[in-house]
Amino acid sequence: MDLLDLGEVGSGCEDENCGLASAFPENCSNQACQWEEPVFGLIELVCVTVIYIPLMLFGLLGNILTILVVWLRPHMRSSTYLYLSSMAVSDLLILLLLPLDLYKLWRPRPWPLGDLACKLTMFLSECCTFCTILHITFLSLERYLAVCWPITAKTLVTRRRTRALIGCLWLGAAVSAAPVLVMVGAEDGGGREEGVASGQGGEIDNRECRCTHYAVSSGLLSAMMILSNLYFLIPLCILGLVYSLIGRTLWLRPQSSRRDQSHRHTVKMLGEKHTLRCVLTTSYTYIYIYT
C-alpha cells in the first residue's frame, strides 16, 4: 500500500507524446514537459513486473488447489487444514489485487476506478495481509500445544473452536485495517500529466489512489505505521519462541518414537515455512508503506 506516495511523481507533460510512460525523460523531448523523477525507474519496473506475473500465476494456482483439496475432502478438514484453507483465501485475495498494484506502479495517475474502489482495494489488501500474519501466528501456537501439551490440545483444539477462532482472526484483521478506509482516497496529484479528460472543460484527470493529506496531518499515518511495526515484530518474536520450545521438547526426549521423528520433521518444515512467510508478508506491507 503506497501510503507515503505524496510526491508529484510524473507530474505533468504537455506534449502529445507524453503518455503512459511520461514519467521517463526519454519519452518527452519538448521543453514544456516537466516532471519529477519517478519513484522507480524503467528497469526497476520491468524487473518488478517480471517477478509479479509468475508469482501471481503460481500463487493463484497453488491457493486454489489448496482450497479445493481441503473442502472437497472432508477427512482433511482438521484444525490445521482449516487454518491453511483460510490462509489460502487470504493469499488469493492479495494475489488478485496484484494487477492493480502493477498498474499503479506504471501509471499512478489518473486512477480510473474512483474513490470508493481505491479505498476498498487498499483496505482489502491490508486486511488480508494482517489476516495471513495472524493465521501464521495462531497456527504456530496450535502446533506448540499439540507437541508440548498433547492432552490439553485434544481438549482445547476442536474444529468448532478453530472455525470460531478463524472468524475472530478475520474480524481482528478487518478492524486493524479499518483506518485505511480513512487514510487513502483518490486525490488530485497535481501537475498536468496527460491522462483522461474529466469532461468538464476538457480538464485532465490527475487523481491518484494514495494516502490523503488528512492522514498525514492528523497523525493517522504514523499510528498505522506503528501498528504495522507491531504486526511485524510481535508475530516474529512469538514464532521464534514457540518453535524454539517445540524443538527443545522434541529433541530432549530420551527415546524418539516414529511419531516423534515425524513431529520433528513436520515442525521443522512448518517453522521454516511459516517464519519465511511471515517475514515476506510483513515485508510486503513495508514496501507499500515506504514507497
* Beta-strand share of residues: under 5%
The CATH topology label is: Rhopdopsin 7-helix transmembrane proteins
CATH class: Mainly Alpha
**What is the oligomer described by this structure?**
single chain
Indicate how many domains the architecture comprises.
1
Overall spatial form = elongated
* Gap from first CA to last CA: 8 Å
Number of strands: 4
Stretches with pLDDT under 50, minimum 5 residues: 1-38, 192-200
What is the tally of helical segments?
10
Biggest sheet features: 2 strands, antiparallel
The helix/strand series, from N terminus to C terminus, equals HHHHHHHEEEEHHH
Transmembrane segments: 51-72, 81-100, 120-141, 162-186, 230-251
Domain G-protein coupled receptors family 1 profile: 62-291
Membrane topology: Multi-pass membrane protein
Keywords: Cell membrane, Disulfide bond, G-protein coupled receptor, Glycoprotein, Membrane, Receptor, Transducer, Transmembrane, Transmembrane helix
Provide a short characterization of the protein structure:
The chain has helices spanning 42-72, 79-96, 98-106, 114-148, 150-156, 159-177, 180-183, 213-218, 220-251, 258-290; strands at 184-188, 196-197, 204-205, 207-211.
Write the layout of secondary structure elements.
Elements: H1 42-72, H2 79-96, H3 98-106, H4 114-148, H5 150-156, H6 159-177, H7 180-183, E1 184-188, E2 196-197, E3 204-205, E4 207-211, H8 213-218, H9 220-251, H10 258-290
Helix pairs in contact: 1-2, 1-3, 2-4, 2-6, 4-5, 4-6, 4-9, 4-10, 9-10
Subcellular location: Cell membrane
Main location: membrane
Membrane topology: Multi-pass membrane protein
